[in-house]
Specification:
heterodimer; A: alpha/beta; Rossmann fold; five-stranded antiparallel beta sheet; 38% helix; globular; B: alpha+beta; ten-stranded mixed beta sheet; two-stranded antiparallel ribbon; 53% helix; elongated
């Protein structure tokens, strides 16, 4: 696929025909090559625009594999993964990386930031790989600063090195980074697990504020069912996916 | 911005990166230093004698003749008789000829008998003439002119008395005919610095009471008697010859080489110098090879450092990947990092070289007569630096490809 074609597809998600379904997986099957057999099969899973979904699952339930599939760092052996109307399984490796940069905001558990970079560097990083998203962000620095203040980060933090921040602040910077340029889909992998109960609540408040303001779809993965009430929908890993393990 | 992040990442690992840069800098400085000494030595070597078209001596090897006539190393197996010398001097192609008579020593320094023409015709470093640092060229029969090193190490000044020993490393001294230092030559960086120069007649005078290498007992001949004697030498060791026209050099060389009355040899100093350098040069090439290996070692050290950093940096790579960086971006980040380390090392090494040169220049000139020129980096040095950076990049491909594989396998998830 040429970059141009890619552009058109990602653009049509933002402008004319707004897709009601942001993420759609169907008949997906994946197994890790080589080692002890681990197969993940998933019949159907879809997220609507603006929806917030909590995906619950124990460790080893295939959450990480699923996230990697959605983000396009691994390819399913069969099935389709459509994001904003684009079947990412049909893109080349480089195009998938580019697509991820343009369309998905990612928040990790912890250690989200490049410790040696400034907060600004970290927030602006995804725009380096996504010219379209960069355009959408407008004045990127101003947008990043605005996000920081909306997320309740002190002003002087902007030029500080990321490793000087507290864990809670770091997670908020990670949110700002996921949100900049407003991608349609935010993937969050246990972003609250490193926070205490109070900070967890505050963090989720901020996150939901932002996603509802921009009709962003949020897929958050966690093993903690207590978070459930705050989401539009709760999905258990075992409801949507089947895991088969066989010792080779 | 990616580049700035790469720099920030290096700065964050300042200690290990600094060590790596230092190792590369030292190795580059060593390599360039050896190179500098090598070229300096080669130039000083080639500059030992210039302006002389032919060196004539008894038949032996050209390198041997060069060694004893110019470098005062080794001995002549035979002399050139005074008649032969006169014949050559009378050859129409000869513009000037300077006889050299060797064989005696003063302390550890060779004594050379010659004529005043030597000071006029002996040239070094592209036509530079000998200059007097103190005193004048010998005028009296028992006058001697000494080189800078002789004066320095023996503490002689103009008018100091000198006693010449017969033969080399001999304890039998020609006490009867004490010489006087009439002048001291300025430092040249050539073997002249280590030579005591007397007149050809003085050489004869010393040996008036000696027959076949042994001192004839009985009373020695007083100096004033010697002064009245005919001191024309019977033989000289070698002769420096200048030709009237370069075109006649080979004709004259053939004339000398085919001289019927005794076996003689004429050599072109430049050719013989090159021949000699070819022998000496092997050691210097070996030295250069060793320091090149030091550079390679430093680069491999860098590779090891990058390698060992990979594991702790998987998180960093995963973040880059999650933000949309391709595995190829990860690879190029590491290669750029290595290029920056190598460049910093090479440039720092060049700086070290210049600091070293400023310190070493007078030491080398004084001790070895090797002039290390301090000038802007040459094309050759620039290409060495480029080669180091290039080799650094190539070497870094090994860990970079590993990082590429890791980032393909890890994606954005690091299982820790």
């Amino acid at each position: 696929m040429t970059l141009n074609a890619l552009h058109q597809r990602s653009n049509c998600g933002t402008c004319s025909e707004v897709e009601a379904t942001v993420l759609e997986l169907s008949e997906v099957s994946f197994h890790w090559p080589g080692r002890a057999r681990f197969t993940l099969s998933l019949r159907e899973f879809a997220l609507k625009r603006g929806e917030t979904v909590l995906l619950l699952g124990e460790s080893g339930s295939g959450k990480s594999t699923l996230l990697s599939l959605i983000c396009g760092t691994i390819l399913p052996n069969m099935g389709k993964i459509r994001i904003s109307g684009t079947d990412v399984t049909r893109l080349s490796g480089g195009a998938r990386d580019r697509f991820r940069a343009e369309n998905i905001g990612v928040i990790f558990q912890q250690f989200n930031l490049l410790p040696f970079g400034t907060v600004a560097d970290n927030i602006l990083l995804p725009l380096q790989f996504a010219p379209g998203r960069r355009k959408r962000a407008g004045n990127a620095k101003a947008a990043a600063a605005a996000l920081c203040s909306e997320l309740g980060l002190p002003k002087d933090v902007f030029t500080a090195k990321a490793h000087t921040l507290s864990v809670g602040q770091q997670q908020r910077v990670a949110v700002a980074r996921a949100l900049i340029g407003h991608p349609h889909l935010i993937i969050a992998d246990e972003p609250t697990s490193a926070l205490d109960a109070n900070s967890q609540a505050a963090f989720l408040d901020l996150l939901f504020q932002q996603t509802s303001a921009h009709e962003t779809t949020l897929l958050m993965v966690s093993h903690d069912p207590r978070l459930a009430e705050r989401f539009d929908r709760v999905v258990r890993m075992e409801e949507i996916a089947q895991i088969e393990r066989a010792v080779a | 911005m990616i580049l700035r992040l790469a720099v920030a990442s290096l700065v964050a690992r300042a200690l290990t990166v600094g060590m790596t840069v230092l190792a590369i800098a030292l190795s580059v400085a060593l390599y360039l230093g050896v190179e500098k000494v090598r070229t300096g030595a080669k130039v000083s070597f080639a500059d030992t004698i210039s302006g002389t078209d032919l060196i004539v001596g008894a038949r032996s090897g050209s390198v041997q003749l060069l060694l004893y006539s110019v470098f005062r190393i080794g001995n002549a197996t035979n002399n050139v008789t005074w008649e032969s010398y006169q014949d050559i001097a009378g050859h129409p192609g000869v513009e000037w000829i300077v006889p050299i008579s060797l064989g005696d020593s003063h302390r550890q320094f060779r004594v050379m008998g010659t004529t005043k023409d030597f000071f006029q015709h002996y040239k070094y470093r592209q036509g530079r003439s000998l200059e007097m640092a103190d005193g004048v060229i010998m005028d009296d029969l028992f006058d001697a002119v000494i080189g800078a090193d002789v004066a320095n190490s023996l503490g002689y000044t103009a008018d100091s008395p000198i006693v010449v020993a017969h033969g080399l490393a001999s304890f039998v001294e020609h006490k009867d005919q004490p010489f006087r230092v009439s002048g001291i030559l300025a430092k040249t960086g050539t073997p002249v610095d280590r030579t005591v120069i007397v007149s050809l007649e003085a050489m004869e005078a010393i040996h008036v009471d000696w027959k076949s290498g042994a001192y004839t007992s009985g009373q020695s001949t007083p100096a004033d008697v010697i002064r009245k004697m005919d001191l024309t030498p019977t033989a000289v060791t070698a002769a420096l010859v200048g030709v009237e026209s370069p075109l006649r050099t080979f004709a004259l060389q053939r004339y000398v080489n085919e001289y019927p009355k005794e076996p003689l040899l004429a050599i072109l100093p430049g050719v013989a110098l090159q021949e000699l350098w070819g022998i000496v040069g092997i050691a210097e090439t070996a030295l250069l090879a060793v320091s090149a290996m030091v550079v390679v070692t430093a680069l491999i050290g860098m590779m090891a450092t990058i390698f060992s950093s990979l594991n702790e940096r998987r998180r960093e790579m995963a973040i880059f990947r999650a933000m949309g960086a391709r595995p190829l971006t990860i690879l190029s980040l590491l290669v750029i990092e290595a290029a920056m380390i190598a460049t910093a090392g090479a440039i720092f090494g060049l700086a070290l070289l210049y600091v070293g040169l400023v310190v070493a220049q007078p030491i080398f000139d004084g001790a070895f007569g090797i002039w290390l020129s301090i000038d802007a980096p040459t094309l050759r040095e620039a290409s060495v630096i480029l080669a180091v950076v290039g080799a650094g990049v190539i070497v870094s491909l090994v860990p970079a490809i590993r990082a590429y594989r890791l980032s393909v396998a890890d994606g954005m998830m690091v299982k820790t």
